[in-house]
Design goal:
This protein has 332 residues and is α/β, with parallel strands linked by helices. It starts with a helix and ends in a 7-residue tail after the last strand. The N terminus is likely disordered.
């Protein structure tokens, strides 16, 4: 059954590079020189307003536009990339989303096709991965440091597909390898015998390879670094005006739970709410913060510090921030 599922994965087309990447002749030559990911000429340009603007259109009304727009919204929410729908080819680089019953695939990076570069989507398949290729991202397991994190089981891979597991000279921006990246192959990609083709050196990572539910924490991080987006991914510093303090009211909270009752650190995921710059705080995870629960700062500053060893946030947390009078302030 695993063999059948792997071969029916619409991202695994044996006629395309790594199963779902269309290459121009120039890119194929550059790939041989191990520099595609490194070549910023394939990145979409950043405008003076700080945003990366990408035009797109739909090839036909039959495509699942709701699913595409949901994926686009995920990119816009987590990065400085903004997508703008157009109705016809405008002679400038843009994406064209179209149905493709034979599978999902995309060019890598921005290509100068006057009538648009195709992003082909199989019915029902989530497009956030293919949009990633169009933004210039390679597969995670192609990273230059991948051998430190996964074992490629070449004996289980279709012989003609072995080159899809080659490493590339990628720019990783100092971001750790990410098993849960939306750009990662699943464990059985291009299997010849139903056995795993990728083995995570960290056994916990095996559970997350190939997920297509959405961005991982590190996906957001590397996208923002590549496009130089001004986004604070890990630490949020909230400063109230003088003589006021920060009031944080949670409206939702859900992280990976503690590994056991004796796990005092929330090892896999945690949020630390520091009520001042120096006051320590216990870590919170699971559903330990209730909706409506309030935290107030000591002084006019609060620090939120999120840590994830899984690089995966689901569903995450949300809160409202207000500034209230600090009656302990000497100037009140």
């Amino acid at each position: 059954m695993l063999l059948i599922l792997a071969r029916n994965n619409p991202e695994l087309n044996p006629d395309l590079y790594q199963g779902d990447i269309m290459l121009t002749d120039e890119q194929r030559k550059a790939l041989e020189e191990r520099k595609v990911m490194n070549d910023s000429s394939y990145w979409w340009p950043k405008a003076a307003d700080g945003y990366v603007n990408v035009n797109y259109r739909f090839a036909a009304p039959s495509i699942n536009q709701t699913m595409v727009r949901r994926a686009i919204s995920s990119w816009e929410t987590n990065t400085c990339i903004r997508f703008h729908e157009i109705t016809s080819a405008d002679g400038k680089p843009h994406l064209i989303f179209q149905d493709n019953n034979s599978g999902c695939n995309s060019n890598i990076g921005r290509i100068y096709f006057w009538n648009g570069q195709p992003v082909n989507l199989a019915p029902g398949w989530i497009p956030v991965h293919e949009i990633g290729h169009a933004m210039g991202f390679n597969h995670e397991q192609s990273r230059s440091d991948r051998d430190d994190y996964v074992i490629v089981m070449f004996g289980n891979i279709l012989t003609s597909m072995a080159s899809n597991f080659d490493k590339r000279g990628t720019i990783n921006f100092g971001v750790p390898y990410d098993y849960s990246s939306v750009m990662h192959y699943d464990s059985y990609a291009f299997t010849s015998n139903g056995n795993e083709t990728l083995i995570a050196k960290n056994p916990y990572g095996q559970l997350f390879m190939g997920q297509r539910d959405g961005f991982s924490f590190m996906d957001k991080r590397i996208a923002n670094l590549q496009y130089n987006c001004t986004v604070d991914e890990y630490i949020q510093i909230i400063t109230a005006p003088a003589c006021k303090k920060v009031r944080l009211t949670f409206t939702a909270f859900g992280l990976i739970s503690r590994a056991s009752a004796s796990d005092n650190s929330c090892y896999f995921q945690q949020l630390i709410v520091r009520r001042s710059d120096i006051l320590a705080s216990q870590p919170y995870c699971g559903t330990e913060i209730l909706s409506g629960q309030v935290f107030e700062s000591v002084g006019n500053r609060m620090v939120l510090h999120f840590i994830s060893r899984l690089n995966w946030v689901r569903p995450g947390y949300s809160a409202t921030i207000t500034f209230v009078q600090d009656q302990t302030s000497p100037n009140w």
